[in-house]
Amino acid sequence: MWETSARLLKLLSLLQNRRDWSGAELAERLGVTPRTVRRDVERLRGLGYPVHAVPGVAGYRLGAGAALPPLLLDDEEAVAVAVGLRTAAGGSVAGIEETSVRALAKLEQVLPSHLRHRVNALQSVTVPLTAGGATVDPATLTAIASACRDSHRLRFDYRQADGTESRRDVEPYRLVHTGRRWYLVAWDTGRADWRTFRVDRLAPRTPTGPRFQPRELPADAAAYVSQSVASAPYRYQARILMHAPVEVVAEMASPTAARLEAVDEHSCVLHAGGNSLDEMALYIGLKGIDFEVLDPPELVDHIRALAQRLVRASG
C-alpha cells in the first residue's frame, strides 16, 4: 500500500513538471510496466486529478478540472495561496520570487476557472506601496514559466530601452529575478544567439510555439544576466580585485550593477561596466574596501585624479 502511494505521488510530480508524457516514458521513470501506469492514472483520476489522455502519442497530461484537486485546501485557502504567490513573485519577500513563480505556475494549471477569476479580481484591486519602478503582470510571469518548463517556443513583442519595438521568437530557458526586475534568458532564433530580455518590456503572443530541444546555456543563468546587464552594454568593462570576501562585497553591489567572482576567502574580483571612467572610479571608491585595478589600466589615472581632488577639497 505504501509503495503504491509513493508511486502515485511520484507520478503526480512528474505530470506537474512537464506538460506531456508518453506512457512508455512514465513507465521507465517509475520502473513499472505501462499497464501499471494506466492503473495508477485511473487511481489519480479517482482522487480528482484531471489526467487527460494525449491523442496520437499514447500519453498523459495533467490539466485543469471542473474542481480543485484534493490538495487539502478549500476554495478560500486556494485563493489565498494563489494571491500570496503572486504577491511574493513581485518581490515583496526577498529570495523566494523565482520559487513563487514556479509554484504559481503549478497551482494555476489546475485552478478551476471560477477561482482563477476571483484571484484576478482580488489582485486587480490590490495596490502595493512600493518605491516604484517597472512592474510585471503575474500572468505574464506564469506564461513564461510554463513555456520554460514545457520547452515551448515563445513569441512576443519587445520594446527596447530606446523605444524601438520588435517581434521576437525565442527558446525560453530561465526566469531570473534581480531584486528589482525580472529577466528572461532565452535563445533568440532570429539572431541565433543567447539574449536577456526585461520581462516588463515584453508582451507574449498566443499561442506558444512548437516544442524545442533545450540547449546548454554557456553559463549559470543568474551569472549570465548579471554579466549582460552590469557590464556588457557599456563602453568600459572594469575588473577590480577587492580585498574582502565575496559575501561582504555582495552586500554593497547589486547584481545588476556588478558581477562578483570569488578568488579566495579573503578577496574577490568585481566586474562592472560604465560609460564614464570618472563615475566608475567614484563607484568603486565608495565601497569602503581596499582594491586594485586589473582592467582597464586608464582607470588608475582617473582614480588618482579623483583622490587628489578630494584631498584639495578637504583643505
Summarize the structure.
The protein has 315 residues and is an alpha+beta fold.
Instruction: Round the Cα radius of gyration to an integer and report it.
Output: 24 Å
Distance between the termini: 83 Å
- Give the beta-strand count: 12
Question: What percent of residues adopt helix (DSSP H or I)?
Answer: 40-55%
Q: For the residues shown, what is the average pLDDT?
A: 82
| Strand residue percentage | 15-25%
Task: Write up this protein.
By secondary structure, this protein is of the alpha+beta class. The chain is built from eleven helices and twelve strands. The strands form three sheets. Strands 7-6-5-4-8 form a five-stranded antiparallel beta sheet. Strand 10 (259-264) and strand 11 (267-274) form a beta hairpin. The protein is elongated.
Which descriptors would you attach to this protein?
315 residues; 12 strands; alpha+beta; 5-stranded antiparallel sheet; 4-stranded antiparallel sheet; 23% strand; 41% helix
What order do the helices and strands come in, and which of them pair?
Layout: H1 2-17, E1 21-22, H2 23-30, H3 34-46, E2 51-54, E3 59-62, H4 75-89, H5 97-110, H6 113-124, H7 138-150, E4 154-159, E5 165-177, E6 182-188, E7 193-198, E8 202-205, H8 221-230, E9 236-242, H9 246-250, E10 259-264, E11 267-274, H10 277-285, E12 291-295, H11 299-313
Antiparallel strand pairs: 1-3, 2-3, 4-5, 4-8, 5-6, 6-7, 9-11, 9-12, 10-11
